[in-house]
Amino acid sequence: MTRALYDQDAYRSGCPAQVVRVHDGDVELDQTVFYPLGGGQPGDSGWIGRADGTRLRITDTRRDKASGAILHRLDAGVPPPAAGSTVTLELDWARRHRHMRMHSALHLLSAVIRHGVTGGNLTHESGRLDFDTGGEALDATRIQHKLERLVQVDLPVSMRMIRGEELAAQPELIRTLSVTPPMHLPWIRLVEIEGADLQPCGGTHVRRTGEIGALRVLKIESKGARNRRVVLAFAEDA
Ligand SMILES: [Zn+2]
User: Fold this and answer.
1) Around ion ligand 1, which residues have CB less than 5 A away?
2) pLDDT along the chain (238 residues), means of 10
3) How far is the CA of 62 from the centre of ligand 1 (A)?
4) Angle at CA 192, nearest 5°, toward 64 and 170?
């Protein structure tokens, strides 16, 4: 299994690594700072540097379902680095940092709207959560003001590990109705936004909510009789 350095330190933007094997243009490494697609967060992109100084583009990162290994996808037709060779990884940090900001923003959104979450997704530009409101309408202005406040007070964001069985005993921590965390695993990571939100999550987050920056509620859409979709964007992109 690939050592996932982003689990411990989401701010590490590069690392040395050794090529374990290459299959179909996907490079498996012994360790990585690249987050693989999952939990609604996109896979990271960036560069892989070879010992001769050449750099190859990594367009996406995925987890191999069968082996659990993290695979770094190269541009089609590019000859990959050889198995056993030492390489240097470098994240597209500007893109990843936006994923971190938006992921933490979505946790704040789930704290502001106390309905069950039925779906969600994020990109470097926007993020959305779907809520089962039972058909109740949501007020974009109120939501935006509450988010603004939680960003302004600059709450610390922290991670800790919890046993799967402990989490199973606290179902109130699970906000996502559509995806159940892997409670069969011995350890699951909890992400806490102090005083606002606590939930199991494997994604990458900012250290404090102030780093999310100003947000705006882009739109609220009806998704069937019971569900409402709230879409957030960064105010700086307006
Ligand atoms: Zn999350």
Assistant:
1) 201, 203
2) 93 98 93 96 97 94 93 92 96 98 97 93 97 96 98 97 84 69 77 92 96 98 96 95
3) 17
4) 80
